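Hi U.,

Before I forget, here's the chain from the pilot set. I'm dumping it here mostly so it's searchable later in email.
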Amino acid sequence: MQRFFSNKKDIKVLDLTKCNVTKGSLYHHFPNGKEELLIDCLHFLNEVITLDIVDIFERYPTTLEATNSMIEKLIVNLETEGTITGYTFSSMVSEMATLSDPVRKACAELYAKIQGIYFKKLMEDGYSKELASNIALMITASIEGAMMLCLAETSAKPLKVISQLLPNKLKEF
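Structure:
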């Protein structure tokens, strides 16, 4: 077995024999090793996560409704599957982004894409460009932070709190 990613809570091991892949073949496609493989995974996550968010945001007329729907989906996933790890990559960012500028940039691109989805909807809601940008950052940080707390606490409470407070925050602006 070859270890490629690890985080303190859950060690991920890629068993190349189960994949019917040799180390040579893997490194042929990823000649720069683990970092290149991680960046490719982040790009894949970028597509998967943002497609899901875009789908939700296109179905609802306002940012508030779309955000609440997205948070509700995360809560349901956590309560039924016991995890939301497919939707957050904060643990990878915290562990890997300081080690490599290309990894940090790949993570920043994903966050920027997510914020862009929120920004676009906020602009449609009539917020100014500057305010929409600031609120998009706040939503991104709040949801990412809440997901990390949910995983740490094994509870959906942080996401539920965010979904209750967000409407009031948006009305303040």
